[in-house]
């Protein structure tokens, strides 16, 4: 908690709005502080994500100067350290900066352009939409035809659900064809519910 409060104060001093929450990361979480089982989230407005990220990265560069060699990252192979850089969104800024420092100390030159390319490739992979399995498609249509709330919810989720990427942008979770199935399920469930209600009043 103390670490989270220090970082929160640092961000506020730079005019960045931040709130601390001790729960599992929601979609708006910018940075995860701490580790399981007790973790703290710094919730930052999406528009201020780049500013906050740059500030925390700068702070990490200062902190790693006094890093102890018994830090767990020193046991990582070069390939594992490069993976840390590639998946920087899954690590705290301190670990990312230290991974880069360890690689440099080992004589492995890490160019910023290469890191950006790796991270962009990961972003592209995360942005890929998913296809609904045939099981879910059959189940969704079945629930929609039954006229229940579950069919309505499934259709709406398959049609509109989005996921947030590390850069703060949002993309549809499911592919275009899957979203079309969701849209059809959604309207079928509405018709089914209306028909069920009408039939029950006869």
What is the ordering of alpha helices and beta strands?
HEEEHHHHHHEEH
Structural class: mainly alpha
Rg over C-alpha atoms, rounded to the nearest angstrom: 23 Å
| Stretches with pLDDT under 50, minimum 5 residues | 24-38
In terms of DSSP E residues, the strand content is 5-15%
Could you walk me through the main structural features you see in this protein, from its secondary elements to its overall organization?
The protein has 202 residues and is mostly helical. It has helices spanning 2-13, 49-63, 78-86, 93-105, 112-127, 134-146, 149-160, 176-201, and strands spanning 19-21, 29-35, 38-43, 162-164, 170-172. It has a three-stranded antiparallel β-sheet with strand order 1-3-2, with helices on one face. Strands 4-5 form a two-stranded antiparallel ribbon. Helix 3 (78-86) packs antiparallel against helix 4 and helix 6 (134-146) packs across helix 7. The longest helix is centred in the C-terminal third of the chain and has 26 residues, at 176-201. The protein is elongated.
Brief overview:
57% of the residues lie in helices and 11% in strands. With 202 residues, it is mostly helical.
Furnish the topology, listing elements before pairings.
Elements: H1 2-13, E1 19-21, E2 29-35, E3 38-43, H2 49-63, H3 78-86, H4 93-105, H5 112-127, H6 134-146, H7 149-160, E4 162-164, E5 170-172, H8 176-201
Antiparallel strand pairs: 1-3, 2-3, 4-5
């Amino acid at each position: 908690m103390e670490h989270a409060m220090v970082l929160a104060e640092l961000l506020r001093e730079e005019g960045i709005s931040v709130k601390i929450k001790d729960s599992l990361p929601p979609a708006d979480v910018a940075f995860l502080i701490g580790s399981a089982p007790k973790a703290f989230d710094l919730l930052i407005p999406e528009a201020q994500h780049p500013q906050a990220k740059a500030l925390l990265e700068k702070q990490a560069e200062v902190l790693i100067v006094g890093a102890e060699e018994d830090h767990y990252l020193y046991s990582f192979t070069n390939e594992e350290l490069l993976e840390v850089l590639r998946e920087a969104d899954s690590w705290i800024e301190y670990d990312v900066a230290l991974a880069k420092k360890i690689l440099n100390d080992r004589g492995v030159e890490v160019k910023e352009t290469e890191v950006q390319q790796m991270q962009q490739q990961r972003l592209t992979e995360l942005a890929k939409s998913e296809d609904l399995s045939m099981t879910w498609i059959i189940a969704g249509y079945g629930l929609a035809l039954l006229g229940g709330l579950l069919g309505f919810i499934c259709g709406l989720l398959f049609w509109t659900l989005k996921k947030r990427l590390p850069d703060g942008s949002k993309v549809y979770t499911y592919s275009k064809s899957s979203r079309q199935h969701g849209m059809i399920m959604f309207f079928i469930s509405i018709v089914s519910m209306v028909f069920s209600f009408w039939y029950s009043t006869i």
